[in-house]
Amino acid sequence: MTKVIYSLQIKSIHYHKLMKYFIIAGEASGDLHASNLMCELKKTDSEAEFCFLGGDLMQAQGGTMIKHYRQMAFMGIIAVLKNARTVLKNLSDCKKAIVDFQPDVLILVDYPSFNLRIARFVKENLKTKIIYYISPKIWAWKEYRIKEIKRYVDKMYTIFPFETAFYALHLYKVKYIGNPTVDSVCMRPNQNQTFNEFCTENNLPDKPIIAILAGSRKQEIKGCLPRMVEAGLLFHEYQVVIAGAPGIDMELYGSVLKGKNVSVVFNQTYELLQQAKAAVVNSGTATLETAIIGTPQVVVYHVPFGKLGYFVKDIVVHVKFVSLVNIVAEKQVVKELLAHLFTVKNIVKELELILNNESYRQIMLNEYSKIKTSLGEPGAATRAAKEIVHYYDLILRCRHSDV
Fold first, then answer.
1. How much is the pLDDT for 9?
2. If DSSP codes are grouped into helix, strand and coil, which group holds residue 300?
3. For residue 110, what are the domain limits?
């Protein structure tokens, strides 16, 4: 893999004195990446105004929050159908807020089912420019969405090098600006914290840690956490520590764990991974975060209906792997236990290799290093902010020259 080198020499034209951004992030990871983008937009455009659907991190950057992502995070067809009235109201409230705010730019962060509906509405009713920051994973499934993207999205900024080639096959030009997960991990707090300091701060015993990252949605936690914890508890010389997801109450973890001897720490996922000897991670952005931090891991993913679901997955999903670590590496770096393979026995088998086989562990760490190199240097949010402001300034210059 080749190291990505960036060269951005952007000079803002400043035809526009006040930029109004409407941003939609429907998940915890989107809230994180959108908040970093907002921070950088304010540096590039000090008079910027924000209105958004997002979370606490975006709220901390200022602006008007229309709806929290906790009211929007429905995963899977069944969950969406059960909450259809809420989903429709979210769409309606979002459209009204956009019309009232009259933004110059609409910035969409992943979350395609919702965001592409909003993109269509905006394209058909307003003159607002539409930018996608963090492409939907249409290279994995629902590739047909490329038609909507080409029709409604003015600019696409991608976060994986391979996405450029994918979109080129569909004759759609995108801009790779680096991966914001690299930014988040590199800017994480307490990077010099010792194991003893971490344990003392969280009232944890002095035992090596197996970290559990069960996802950020209630459905994921309920479906995955029991097996993940059960496997970890079989390693008696280790303690099991769960990374509490933002927006999830301790009561939910308590109801799922039912008195098991494990700890839950909130707002310290990176610190936990940094101190852990191994991690069991529910597939998602967390797998890439774990790799960049350098913690050996096994990836799990619950697929309904076991073997049948696994068979359907192979038909529907167009990539060989589900974890971002393996997708970026284009080969198996970490073990993926999906559907019927997601068992306590299989997790234990993989953890034994990670914890006790030094050669196996080192090979994984070496591959992590290659992945980090392929993603490039930090600064994705900075580059995206400069590109967005520059893009809109060019539009205004063209309009100005036409007058």
1. 45
2. strand
3. 20-185+378-402
